[in-house]
Amino acid sequence: QGDRTPLIAGNWKMHLDHLQAIAFVQKLSWGLKDVRHDFGEVEVAVFPPFTDLRSVQTLLAADKLSLTLGAQDVSPHESGAFTGDVSAAMLGKLDVRYVLVGHSERRQGHQEGDDTVAAKTLAAHTAGMVPVICVGETAEDLETHGAAAIPLAQLAAAIAPLPADAEFVVAYEPVWAIGSGQAATPEQAEDVARALRESLRDLRGDDVATATRILYGGSVASQNVAGFLRQPNVDGALVGGASLKVDEFTRIVQFKK
Ligand code: PEP
Predict the structure, then answer these.
(1) What domains, with CATH codes, occur in the chain?
(2) Which of 173, 175, 234, 252 to mutate to test the pocket of ligand 1 (most atoms within 8 A of CB)?
(3) Entry's PROSITE patterns (predicted)?
(4) What pTM, to 2 d.p., does this model score?
């Protein structure tokens, strides 16, 4: 796996208000403080709703907690008359390091196409953050095109505007596996992750392909996480539902290879 530090990311979606978020992060940090892996470091990130970011940032800074902060979305625009949008610069000011872009719940529920995802990816990068680019096929895509075609096209479109040295993370999330309890098998995840890395090699060269972390997401739980993390091209997990239970998320972070 080269030098890629595994990343376990918790996408809270629209759950936990800022008071609940504070209690949650305190418990999570307590649970994680003694977690050690014999293969080295694991990075743990949480992606709370916008209204929680300031509270969580303050808590992480005051207690010197080692969690990394992520946001679930970003405006493609720099500033201006965009009611309801939150800019990348605003997120950067809150010590946000990662920004989810292209999550299927935004592609489907908010009709975000590849152009919007690319603009958001660029906005996050330009403001100094690392976009976490979500790609994945629906059940219908899987039948029609196989597993990898849609994720590869979505990734190519999202990174097109990025400069050659830009850092980004890829999250392979088959849409049929999200929130369904029906995770992909580790082999299915590895096949697409390998194809994504190969395509990064073609598009961006060896260094980017080797350095870029590719996560798997879709019904990850403590019972199945290790199977994914054992795959040579899977460098972490994007966890939705199971990231909202402190004990379960702690067990996920504690995965054994
Ligand atoms: C997600 O929302 O990114 C996700 C993977 O959800 P879940 O883990 O609940 O399938």
Answers:
(1) 7-253 (3.20.20.70)
(2) 173
(3) TIM_1, TIM_2
(4) 0.97
